[in-house]
Design a protein that fits this description.
Layout lengths: L2 H10 L6 H18 L5 H16 L6 H12 L8 H33 L4 E6 L3 H9 L4 E7 L7 H10 L4 E4 L4 H5 L4 E4 L3 E2 L5 E4 L2 H11 L2 E5 L28 H7 L11 E4 L6 E4 L2 E3 L1 H10 L1
Parallel strand pairs: 1-2, 1-4, 2-3, 4-7, 7-9
Antiparallel strand pairs: 5-6, 6-8, 9-10
Helix pairs in contact: 1-2, 2-3, 2-4, 2-5, 3-4, 4-5, 5-6
Length: 302
């Protein structure tokens, strides 16, 4: 199995999780496939490269950061007169430049977010966002306590809880439906963002929307943390961002259902939900902190 097909399989099976990790692994697979390609004919090499890009591009429906990265890398060989060696060089150079740019973006996001957090803050998080984790670790001297929602059915909140605890931050992990029981203690709710839409709404891990609505009730500020590469430009043209439906066995296995006598019960397992911009205080990204609508305008101008 090729490195690209193996990476696609791992993304689809959720062996690779988190938008940043998905992007990194996908771009790494492209780099390895380019370096190892045996194609000598420029047209055949270009065809092979674009096919690999397409496989990765379509590996997950809710991964605009991945798609943005692939678009940028593909642009590196826009010149139709390049030799195979020239294309390889340009693609690898583009990937290296892109990853360097993303590393700087991560640092900038962490800095903007950490500077904004007030001393002795209590924070609520959901799921696992490497960007949120890095930001909170940078701000750890200002943080009194972090409550991490476990994020069923795959419990990615445990990853966040452990990372923050290992960094010396006081952490409590709790079940998703207990969010309201700690909300009054919290100053902020920080979520990641899987996709940022043209109307300012965000797509993120299932449960983000109802916690954001609770934030409005309890006067807790919800900040979505993201790279601007999470923006999905196709939504400017009215295209809807699909919500991925994952294997329902994550919720209740067929074996357990039969044992329980629940053969006629239908299951749903949406991986994400859509949070309305009206419940989001701001977006923390590498170019600053903006209201959702102001960030949309800024990205359109760019």
């Amino acid at each position: 199995m090729s490195i690209v097909k193996k990476t696609v399989r791992d993304i689809k099976s959720l062996k690779i999780q988190g938008a940043t990790n998905v992007r990194k692994k996908a771009i790494s697979a492209i780099a390895k496939s380019v370096k190892s390609s045996k194609e000598k004919n420029p047209a055949n090499f270009r065809k092979e490269f674009f096919q690999n890009c397409s496989l990765l591009f379509n590996s997950r429906p809710t991964e605009p950061e991945l798609r943005t990265a692939i678009r940028i890398v593909k642009q590196s060989i826009a010149d139709k007169n390049l030799s195979v060696s020239e294309m390889k060089e340009k693609i690898i150079e583009s990937i290296q430049k892109y990853e360097k740019n993303r590393a700087k973006a991560m640092e900038d996001i962490s800095r903007f977010g950490a500077n904004m957090i007030e001393p002795n803050s209590t924070i609520l998080t959901i799921c696992h966002s490497s960007t949120v984790v890095k930001m909170l670790i940078k701000a750890k001297k200002k943080i009194n306590h972090v409550y991490c929602l476990e994020t069923r059915p795959r419990y990615q909140g445990r990853i966040t809880a452990r990372a923050l605890s290992d960094a010396g931050i006081k952490v409590t992990l709790l079940v998703d439906n207990a969010a309201s029981t700690v909300m009054k203690k919290c100053d902020y709710f920080f979520s990641g963002t899987d996709a940022f839409l043209a109307d300012g709404d965000i797509i993120n891990k299932i449960g983000t929307n109802h916690v954001s609505i609770l934030c409005k009730k309890y006067d807790v500020k919800h900040y979505a943390v993201m790279s601007t590469h999470k923006f999905e430009p196709s939504t400017l043209l009215g295209k809807q961002q699909p919500i991925e439906q994952r294997d329902v066995s994550e919720v209740w296995s067929e074996k357990e259902m039969k044992k329980f006598g629940a053969k006629k019960i239908k299951l749903m397992n949406p991986a994400f939900d859509r949070t309305d911009s009206s419940t989001i205080e701001g977006i923390i990204c590498e170019i600053g902190i903006f209201t959702p609508q102001n960030l949309v305008m800024k990205l359109i101008e760019k």
